[in-house]
Amino acid sequence: MTTTMHRLLATAERPAWAERPRASTQGAKSGGIAVILALILLPLYMIVLTSLSTQAAINAAGGMVIWPHGLSLGAYRDVVSGGVVSRALLISLGVTAVGTAFSMFVTILAAYGMSRAGSFGHRTILWIMMTTMFFNGGIIPLFLVVSALGGYDQYWALIAPSAVSVFNIIVMRAFFANTAKDLIESARIDGASDWRILWRIVLPTSKAVTAVIALFYAVGYWNSWFNIMLFMPSDSAKWPLQMVLYDYLTQNSEMVNSAASGFQSAAPTLALQMAVVTITIIPVLLVYPLVQKHFTKGVLLGAIKG
Amino acid sequence: MTRAAATGVAGTATPVGTLAVGAIGVAGTRPRWRVRLRRDRALLVMCVPALVLLGVFGYAPMLGLVMAFQDYDLYDGILHSPWVGLANFQQLFTDPGFLHAFWNTLMLFSVQLVLFFPVPIALAILLDSLMSRRIRTFVQAVVTLPHFFSFVLVVTIFNQVFGGAGALDTFLRSHGVTSPFDFMTDPGTFKFLVTSQLIWKEAGWSMIVYLAALAAISSELHEAAAVDGAGYWRRLVHITLPGLKGITVLLLILNLGYALTFGFEQMLIQLTAVGPGAAQVITTFSFENGIVAGNYSYGAAAGLFLGATSVILILGANKVAHLFGEDGLYRK
């Protein structure tokens, strides 16, 4: 890998004034990059490989598998055949889908509602919203409010308290404020309502920013763990995937011990655990290229800086 | 907030322009603000869902913080629980558990700041020096990926590599080391574990800002210096690093604003494995006392202390950023 990279590095578009780096510098650079890539990709590779390994392969490796021998889909068959994990997977997908739709609904409306220069009270509303970015009541009063509303052990408690990101509203608002200004103005003169303008003009011209913000919400819902810890810590039948993963993580030593003392399930315990980890990663990998595409497009650069 | 509202109303006279002025000219007798309210009704309605959510889950808990001055009881509620003045805070500042959590917060944050902060800068410079676009895009895609993993996932991955039955442990055992060091549960090295997890997860993401700053440095500067005989390292010291100074100072300052709320999930996930001696921070202290132990007022007092000091830190950090001529979290 290093040699191919070395060649590619050497033959790239170097400006005429820049000196050709010495072979030692080039080698160190390729080496450094190879190490960085390995630090991130190697653990992921081992996890996926172990999830696909047979008990014999795991035993031979003494744990995590690095060289593939003895592959099996047993762990995945077990995981999706209606146990804890397949239920958690469905719950996670459901919470993510409903949550993202709800968040987008609220965010788009608020962002457009505050986007017009000079509209009534939009600065006041913006300040009311932004205050919550600087100060909040903290965990305990939030817990008591949600409990008082009957949210304990309810799925809506995993969505509603974190449904609005003021930050996302501000990013989107900034975008809406600059989109299709003339078109909006003439539509208003023609008597189109703001609902119609939002639906017919603003949203169709802001597909990219809408998609990116939706993806960010979706990743947030998919990854959220503390909400579950706070609002449904004990009802394991309702747990989304992250909480099942956390449970596996903190029970890890016990599970390994029971596996070592002769307990055998259909698939190896370690492979099952790694299958859960892999299933948690997959949706992120699926949407990642879509988000990645927009990193450099300014939308997010401004966002990160703020 | 009142001042902002006033400028909001006053500032509108100019940008609205002909439309509003025309409407007023016709209506004549009605007050201006009522005309504008009528005109912008739909826009205001659109803000309602977000305002309701923020009211219930943002402002109501803020009001609920008064329980920090009460001996809150679940059955009496905020309205009927007895008031105890500053008793909870007095207890807090003499509680060795809290003081230890406070110390841990500062210590973990400092170690993280010193060790993490330079990594994205170095990474950006390394990546920027790659000439091939394809490799650069690929490396960037790989290093930013872990940002999108949850901390539960990141800790699990670290556990599979460094933990008691992880890959490193297995490797060392099979090469004759009888009882390898367990990096995942050792309280002494926990600060380095936390930092390495942060680097693994966030260094690539933080790098993007620096990459943008590097791209903004004019290549003519580099060219002129190169023509004058400055080598790569000289250009790095005299052109590249000065070009990154502004954004570095800004991010450093903004980072300080979050010193006390730093790493809540990360600590909570590993609290049982490492123990409170090393992993208890103010946020987890508040959670453990308030929710887990059910001592709501005491936990809320810790939370209020945290929130108040964080606001001061964040506003102070932004003030300093403005002094440096940068925008900060909000514009001046």
Which structural traits does this protein have?
heterodimer; A: 306 residues; mainly alpha; MetI-like fold; 2 domains; globular; disordered C terminus; B: 332 residues; 19 helices
Notes on the structure:
The complex is a heterodimer of chains A (306) and B (332). Chain A is mainly alpha-helical. Chain A folds into 2 domains: 24-72, no CATH class; 83-305, MetI-like fold. Chain A has 16 helices and no strands. The two termini of chain A are 38 Å apart. With 332 residues, chain B is mainly α. Chain B folds into 2 domains: 2-69, no CATH class; 87-323, Orthogonal Bundle (MetI-like fold), CATH 1.10.3720. Helix content of chain B is 74%, strand content 0%. In chain B, helix 9 (118-128) crosses helix 13. The chains are: A mainly alpha (306), B mainly alpha (332). The interface between A and B is large, with 116 and 117 residues.
CATH topology name of the largest domain in chain A, in short, is MetI-like fold
The biggest beta sheet of chain A is recorded as: none
- CATH topology (level 3) name of the largest domain in chain B: MetI-like fold
What is the structural class of chain A?
mainly alpha
How many whole angstroms does the radius of gyration of chain B measure?
27 Å
Kindly state the percentage of residues in helix of chain B: over 70%
Low-confidence stretches of chain A: 253-265, 298-306
Distance between the termini of chain A: 38 Å
Strand content of chain A: under 5%
* CATH fourth-tier homologous superfamily of the largest domain in chain B: MetI-like
Number of helices of chain B: 19
As residue ranges, the low-confidence spans of chain B are 1-27
The first-level CATH class of the largest domain in chain A is given as Mainly Alpha
Using a beta-carbon cutoff below 8 angstroms, give the protein chain pair with the largest interface and the number of residues from each chain: A-B, 116 and 117 residues
The name of the CATH architecture of the largest domain in chain B is Orthogonal Bundle
Query: What does the average pLDDT of chain A come to?
Result: 83
The figure for the number of domains of chain B is: 2
Structural class of chain B: mainly alpha
Q: What is the helix fraction of residues of chain A, given as a range? A: 55-70%
